[in-house]
Sequence to fold (362 residues):
Amino acid sequence: MTLPVPDYITAIEPYVTGKPIEALEREYGIRDSIKLASNENPLGPSPKAVQALQNALQEIHRYPDGAGWRLTHRLAEHLGVAPEGIVLGNGSDEIIAMLARMCLQPGDEVILPRPSFLMYEICVRCAGSRPVFVDLKGLGMDLAEMGRRITRRTRLVFICNPNNPTGAMTPRKDFEAFMDDLPDGVVAAVDEAYFEFVRSPDYPDSIAQVKAGRPVVTLRTFSKAYGLAGLRIGYGVTTPEIAALLHRVRQPFNANLMAQIGACAALEDSEFLESTRRITHEGLDYLYGALDEIGVRYSPTQANFFLIDVGRDAGEVFEALLRKGVIVRSMAAYGYPTHIRVNAGKPRENERFIQALKAVLE
Ligand SMILES: Cc1ncc(COP(=O)(O)O)c(C=O)c1O
Fold:
């Protein structure tokens, strides 16, 4: 059978998600497993969001507000930007897809750091455009080289800060120099999915660039620090001009009713956000210390996850950890054949991971 599908779609490698706990337990016949693989919130969801969602259940026969008025206004107030510059998405994933739909035609070029979040490449390929990869320098983005690779065909540049999967942060000076040199006709997408976890004082302010009218779209999400990954809600912060174009390519009710309600409540839950930051940072510090003790190398992070060099085949270590009920991510497919990526969990989960890793490496 011949299907009417362009070659550039057939060639796409499907995105592989972290293994769900339920799938692991079903396949391996084990119980009480833990997942430190998808950079989720170890505390669960924001309690204020849960309460608001429970109260809202009787409303789900209604369509959501397609304009997301309440959430966009809350976010605008929170960030000090114009509400006309906020675009909601079914996760920040969807904003990435919307950007590709808005800007790209077959033959266009997009500058992508490598390795980084795989959805950039998938969305670029869906448009029949060409990803131009710029390898990381160490674990961080090489913005100078990314700037040099811009041509007349370049439409979009993705900056992931902190970068997934390395956890490295682009410092302010490098970001500002890159933005100063960004030629007219190119949009910078700055993915800040993990910005709430950053501890460095040198983190760049991409929203200041938006406020200055630069062609920037800052991507943020409620999936990580607010614990709402399953609800699917993220947003872009940009100029009203770019936002108006993004609205043209989105579905009318792309941010669902419960997601909008949950996100509004989570945004008010500063206590939960603080607890999330605390447990994440304490978790990371514990893990660093424990790895130092057992002599395993790792790369400190600005996000809620980090890379560990297990010094042997990462796929095998991943499998062995699975059998002990611990789900992490092998980084072999990202070009790090001896690394796994792990996010900070609850103290009990972190300890269990260290015990399991010790046993596997012995
Ligand atoms: C760098 C980065 N960007 C975006 C996303 C997508 O997040 P969501 O679609 O849940 O908002 C993720 C999720 O893992 C991510 O790591």
Remarks:
- The two ends are 52 Å apart (CA to CA).
- The CA atoms of residues 9 and 194 lie 30 Å apart.
